[in-house]
Amino acid sequence: MYYRVMTVNGVSNLSVEPNIVEVQLDVVTEGMSLSQVQQENANIMNQVIQALLQLGIARENIQTTAYTINPKYDYVDGTQVFRGYEVTNAITVKIKDIDQAGNVIDVAVQNGINRVSNIQFTVENKDVYYKQALSSALKDAYAKAQTLANTMQIGIAPYPIKITEKISEAPITYKAYATMEASTPIEPGQIVIGATVEAQFHY
């Protein structure tokens, strides 16, 4: 028997309250002597890390994510003039109490952090929510297939002959910059965890 194939996409999105925030904190130092600039940077970062540990941030939740050394130049009358080095040391801090995120940033800035380059909210056990969305996406695909079949007044097979998971979910990322003001406001909002499937049905 000859079967025709209907292909539909199913989509589902779950809004989830985040319970983890990851913050990238940078120490940027400049100067003419590379060794002095590096030492100054290391001293500041060590002070920042100690302050974070005193706040109760676990050491395993503080990770170095970048370390760069950039020579700086000016151009005077078309001539390249060396004006020193810029050293950037970046750490990512995982904060499991979102309510403390603003305080963590404030303390980091007070201890020498001069750039907050990234704030990202996420949720523990994200895979649990994703599987819920995936299940709902398949139900959505079947409902769409049934709607199309009813419109055409035809029957479809009760089970799909092929299901393809489409990976498109990504965390919501917020950009921010550190200030010296107390109680830096951090508003997480909600994370949308989405799933999409492509399903094929015989009809």
Structural description of this entry:
By secondary structure, the chain is an alpha+beta fold. 29% of the residues lie in helices and 41% in strands. The chain is built from three helices and eight strands, in the order ββαββαβαβββ. The strands form two sheets. Strands 3-4-2-5-7 form a five-stranded antiparallel beta sheet. It has a three-stranded antiparallel beta sheet with strand order 1-8-6. Strand 3 and strand 4 form a beta hairpin. The longest helix is centred in the last third of the chain and has 27 residues, at 126-152. It is elongated, with a radius of gyration of 26 Å. The protein starts with a strand and ends with a strand. Residues 171-182 have low confidence and may be disordered. This is DUF541 domain-containing protein. InterPro entries: 26kDa_periplasmic_antigen (IPR052022), SIMPL/DUF541 (IPR007497). It comes from Virgibacillus subterraneus.
Summarize this structure as a short list of keywords or feature phrases:
five-stranded antiparallel beta sheet, elongated, alpha+beta, 203 residues, three-stranded antiparallel beta sheet, 3 helices, single chain, 8 strands
